[in-house]
Amino acid sequence: WGILFSHPRDFTPVCTTELGRAAKLAPEFSKRNVKMIALSIDSVQDHLSWSKDINAYNGEQPEEKLPFPIIADANRELAVKLGMLDPDERDKDGMPLTARVVFVFGPDKKLKLSILYPATTGRNFDEILRVVDSLQLTAYKKVATPVDWKPGDSVMVVPTLPDEEAKKLFPKGVFTKDLPSGKKYLRYTPQP
Ligand code: BEZ
């Protein structure tokens, strides 16, 4: 699994808080077997110098090292190719900045999730870990996660699975909620 998250620019306030949080959560991503990589449209030298600020923001030694690499996309080549440029945010020279894009890839190297935030809204990395948990669970089990699901909550049996197969596949039980339509499509099971 892999996650690529882009940033508008080095040495900007929201980005610094986001990368600080991402660095603190690196063990959580590692536990889930997710490799992390960031992208910002500045040079390697800037990234190294900014990394010191990020570590200091986290209350740690101002070292150049972070637990993940930052791609130096100084010519915006990748940002253009991957549709990451924010149409509204520009730098002082009028050049477009990168938006806050999150791409999660599966072990098959295919895109499993993409979320796009504008430069002015920082991401919630707890939510990103939550979607990774859902993506990984639903990749391997015939379940889907309902609204506001958290790891450990009940999940839904996917609509395409016949009742008889669901009973066999989920020995902890399948619980259906009655609805006015009489259609028994709300099928819950404890998280497998
Ligand atoms: C920031 O990271 O603080 C930021 C970057 C670009 C536009 C607005 C905020």
Automatic annotation (TrEMBL):
EC number: 1.11.1.27, 2.3.1.23, 3.1.1.4
Residues of the Thioredoxin domain: 1-137
Pfam families: 1-cysPrx_C, AhpC-TSA
GO cellular component: cytosol; mitochondrion
Active site per UniProt: 15
Any GO BP: cell redox homeostasis
Reaction(s) the record says it catalyses: 1-hexadecanoyl-sn-glycero-3-phosphocholine + hexadecanoyl-CoA = 1,2-dihexadecanoyl-sn-glycero-3-phosphocholine + CoA; 1,2-dihexadecanoyl-sn-glycero-3-phosphocholine + H2O = 1-hexadecanoyl-sn-glycero-3-phosphocholine + hexadecanoate + H(+); a 1,2-diacyl-sn-glycero-3-phosphocholine + H2O = a 1-acyl-sn-glycero-3-phosphocholine + a fatty acid + H(+); a 1-acyl-sn-glycero-3-phosphocholine + an acyl-CoA = a 1,2-diacyl-sn-glycero-3-phosphocholine + CoA
Key words, A-Z: Antioxidant, Multifunctional enzyme, Oxidoreductase, Peroxidase, Redox-active center
InterPro entries cross-referenced by the UniProt entry: AhpC/TSA, Peroxiredoxin_AhpC-typ, Peroxiredoxin_C, PRX_1cys, Thioredoxin-like_sf, Thioredoxin_domain
Stretch forming the signal peptide: none
GO molecular function, one term: phospholipase A2 activity
Homology family: Belongs to the peroxiredoxin family. Prx6 subfamily.
PANTHER family: MCG48959-RELATED, PEROXIREDOXIN-6
Stated name of the protein: Peroxiredoxin-6
